[in-house]
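Checklist before submission:
- one chain only
- standard amino acids only
- sequence pasted in full

Submission:
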Amino acid sequence: MEPLQVNIHEAKTQLSKLIQAALNGREVIIARGNKPVVRLEVLPAARKERKIGNAKGLVLNMAEDFDAPLEDFKEYME
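Returned file contents:
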């Protein structure tokens, strides 16, 4: 994901949106006259903690042979 660069005036008018973008993992750069001067950074305490098992219920259907060896790779498996 490429950094989001905005000028100071735009940063003033869209601060909430820029904070949310940073919280979502986007790098936010604030520039003065197209020259980057500040990076908006999320504090470690504000980062979302990853939880194991968060995707429960995401897989709705899985083929019976989903983990069967593929014919294309048979020679590599021997």
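Reviewer check: The longest strand covers residues 35-40.
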